[in-house]
Structure formats: structure tokens, C-alpha cells
Amino acid sequence: MGRSIERIRALSRHWGWMIAEHVGMRQPEPVLVPTGSLPEREAWDAAQFGAFWFGQATTLLRVNGTTILTDPHFGDRAGTTVYGRQTGRKRSTALPGSIEDLPQIDVVLLSHAHMDHWHKASLERLANSHSSVVIPKNTRRLLPHRGRHFGHIMELDWEHTESVSDLGIHALPCKHWGARFLLDVHRGYNAYVIEADNRKLVFAADTAETDSFDHLSGIDTVIMGIGNYYVPWDTMHATPEQASAMAERMGARRFMPVHHSTFRDPSEPMNEPIERLKLAWQPKPIICERIGDVHLE
């Protein structure tokens, strides 16, 4: 009972904070400037492996000649549009680039349909006949025009694999949920293994602590969320220490943290997630720890 009351109070504070900002009762905090920008196109195309972080779970990846964009969100707020007005939490750090700045995208990879990961306006602008899109089960209807403007749509259930652009993409279970609204709980939610000839990555945007990845080994890079772990979100998001332990158990060589320092959360100090991860993951390397950071090799 005490835990339930704590969750209700936390939700009330969260919504009260957002409503106060929307109606002008609370002065919005200044938006921070990102530390970097997209790499030069020639350097990106030449890289065997590349990573760039836009914020939240939006990453640009280069894997053996294939460019992947994960959970693309290029909006200012993490919510839906109501009567022409964008709702939801506001960005704390400005985007380090726009859709127009992107290289050609071969694969759009979507983990689940929550509004801070599945941004319909961004997906509509990204849709083209060259790009394939990989989505969880029961989510195709949420794509703009049901995905007809993408070149190929792959709707993956857990433990299913597809080949796309010389990569193997395997869907894994994680501990989260997939409803975009309150009642559409039939929608899927995935983590993914991305496998090339000599490289294996895990993209697990949102998950609480789970043993679903413990059978994996030889992971080159794990891309995993480390934020939003305070009540009431703690049962669906891992702490930095839990994320580090999951990555360690799958033998990850390095960590690319996402889902932190992007959309304002009054319960979570801005730099707390990354500082806690640094302590937990040391001495192993962390790449793209700040929005706008790039890693090429």
C-alpha cells in the first residue's frame, strides 16, 4: 500500500510540473547547447563503425557500410499533439542536427511505440523507398500511412530474425511495455541484436533489469537506457548500475548510454545517470556519453 501511494504521489508531481510549464505558471528552464555536431559525410561513409547520439534513444549507427537510425525523435517535446499544440516533456538539450542533415538511412529501427521513441512527424519525414523499417509486432498501423512510403517493413516478434542490408537483426524480449496509449497493451516492444560479419551490437532502448540478455556473449557495443529510474518509472527502467550489470553479463566491450539528459524530468538530476554509469562501468570505455558526441573507427 505504501509503495502504491508513493507512485501516485510521484505521478501527481510529474503531471503537475508539466501542466504548470504548459500553462505558463512555471518558467521553462533554458535549453542547453549540445557539445558536438554530425560528422563530415566522407568520414561517416568511410567508417567501419560509427555512432552518434541525438538524444533520448535516437542514435545514428554505421555498421559495416550500413547506416541505421534508431527510435528517431526530432521534435521539441516528448508527447502527442493536442489541438495543434505539442505536449509532453520539453527538451533539456537542443538537437545537434536535423533530419535534413542526415546521411542516407538504410534501416530505421524502432524499439516501441512510446511517444519519446516513436515520433510520427519524424517518421513521416524519414519515409522513403530506400529505407527499410524494423518494428515490433502489432505496431505497423502506427506508422505514417501504415509504412507504405518505406521501401520495406519488417514487423518482428521476440526471437525472430530478419536480414537487411547485409545485417542480421534479431528481436529480443526486454522488461518494458509497448502501449502508445493506455489500453493498446497488445503492441510489442523489442530489444535488438544487430549482427554483421565481425561485429555484434545490442540496442535495448528501454528496459528494467532483466536476465533476457544473459545468454548473449561477445557483444561489441551495448546501447541501453540509463535514465528515468525514479518512482513511478522504476519498474520499467534500469538504474545505471543495473544497466552496467546487464551489459557486463552479456560480455559487452563498451557502453553507449541513451535515454538520459534529453527530456526534462524534475525527479532526476541532469547529470546523475551518466555519472553513476561511469562509476559502475569503469574501467571499460563509454562512447557518446553527451548529446552531439560522435565515435568513428
Description:
This protein is α/β, with parallel strands linked by helices. The chain has one domain (2-296): Ribonuclease Z/Hydroxyacylglutathione hydrolase-like (Metallo-beta-lactamase, Chain A). It is 18% helix and 23% strand. The chain is built from five helices and 15 strands. The strands form three sheets. A seven-stranded mixed beta sheet has the order 8-7-6-3-2-1-15. Strands 9-10-11-12-13-14 form a six-stranded mixed beta sheet, covered by helices on one side. Strands 4-5 form a two-stranded antiparallel sheet. Helix 4 packs parallel to helix 5 (272-281). It is globular and about 50 Å long. The model has no long low-confidence stretch (mean pLDDT 91).
Taken in chain order, the helices and strands follow as HHEEEEEEHEEEEEEEHEHE
How helix-rich are the residues, as a percent range?
10-25%
Main pleated sheet: 7 strands, mixed
Q: Write down how many β-strands occur, each being a DSSP E stretch of 2 or more residues.
A: 15
Rg, Cα atoms, Å: 18 Å
CATH topology name, in short, is Metallo-beta-lactamase, Chain A
Structural class: alpha/beta
Q: Work out the helix count.
A: 5
**Number of domains in the coordinates?**
1
CATH superfamily: Ribonuclease Z/Hydroxyacylglutathione hydrolase-like
Instruction: State the end-to-end distance.
Output: 52 Å
CATH class: Alpha Beta
CATH architect. name: 4-Layer Sandwich
Low-confidence stretches: none
Tell me the overall shape.
Answer: globular
Fraction in beta strands = 15-25%
Strand order of the largest sheet: 8-7-6-3-2-1-15
Q: What is the residue-averaged pLDDT?
A: 91
